[in-house]
Amino acid sequence: MRDTFNLEHLRTVVAIADLGGFGRAATALHLSQSAVSKHVRLLEMAVGGVLLEKHGRGARFTATGELVLDEARRLLALNDEAMGRLAVRATTPLTVGMAEHVADRTLTDLLGALRAGFAPRTVRFRMDRSPRLVDSVGRGETDLAFVVAANAEAVGRDLGTLALHWYAGRRAEPSDPAAPFPLVAFEDPCGLRDAALRALAEEGRRAEVVAESSSFSGVVEAVRAGLGVALLPTAAGVPPGLVRRGDLPDMGSVPFRLLTRPGLDARLEETALEVAGGFASVLTPPFALPRPAAARAS
């Protein structure tokens, strides 16, 4: 007996049994009657026994044929169920989150790379603040997300770091030393906002949030308008219309991570890591992409 069955041959014998003969099976399967007969002969050679015998003007299954028919139904059902599951997965959109801080520079390259890496699935993007992406991944609403991890809640695969810098508007007027330090920040909760206020307080600067926004673009626009200074991680260099403030505390860097929802196929995570390696080069240093676990082990 051969080690494997030909599913097409199994489907032919099931059609013979269900439809009542070679001719009807041939019509249903869009085969010639000689092709149906050939499938039966090849299957008989595979199992080492006769499957059908003449009975009156037709044929009937032998004891061996009945056993093969039962196994054929079971194997075909398993095959069809598996193909159905895979078809559903292939057509289910994959939702990918991207922190706004890096989306502008990398989105075009990332979209193309993800579409190629995750084909044939459709990729749907969500650009948002990192805390909201963390929550969305945790609730299973977003499949995977590239986030700036300013707090401990963003547990995932470290991709590297993004440098933190203070930014002011290019035409901003010098602030009054006697007045509170004008800080532009993200709305609470925000790890960067907390870090900025803490660092300024440790330097003895009395800070006041003069403008806040729920989005990265909103913070940048407020700074560009001269309302105040913001602490930002940027992957695409200095945002247009802004300048770095080198007279403020050195804030180091913040982790950049890949988060995946619970239960996500590990192969999708590895694909995302490979894609990240392709666009990491366009991010502002320091950014060191670790090799995937599988590669490190080799």
Write the layout of secondary structure elements.
Elements: H1 7-19, H2 22-29, H3 33-47, E1 52-55, E2 58-61, H4 63-91, E3 94-99, H5 100-117, E4 123-128, H6 130-138, E5 144-148, E6 157-169, E7 181-186, H7 191-202, E8 207-213, H8 216-224, E9 230-233, E10 242-244, E11 253-260, H9 266-279, H10 293-297
Parallel strand pairs: 3-4, 3-5, 7-8
Antiparallel strand pairs: 1-2, 5-11, 6-9, 6-10, 6-11
Helix pairs in contact: 1-2, 1-3, 1-4, 2-3, 5-9
Explain this structure.
The protein has 3 domains: 7-90, Winged helix-like DNA-binding domain superfamily/Winged helix DNA-binding domain (Arc Repressor Mutant, subunit A), CATH 1.10.10.10; 92-161 and 254-292, Periplasmic binding protein-like II (D-Maltodextrin-Binding Protein, domain 2), CATH 3.40.190; 162-253, Periplasmic binding protein-like II (D-Maltodextrin-Binding Protein, domain 2, 3-Layer(aba) Sandwich). It has helices at residues 7-19, 22-29, 33-47, 63-91, 100-117, 130-138, 191-202, 216-224, 266-279, 293-297; strands spanning 52-55, 58-61, 94-99, 123-128, 144-148, 157-169, 181-186, 207-213, 230-233, 242-244, 253-260. Strands 3, 4, 5, 6, 9, 10 and 11 form a 7-stranded mixed sheet that branches. Strand 1 (52-55) and strand 2 (58-61) form a beta hairpin. The longest helix is centred in the first third of the chain and has 29 residues, at 63-91. Residues 284-298 have low confidence and may be disordered. It is built from 10 helices and 11 strands. The protein has 298 residues and is an alpha/beta fold.
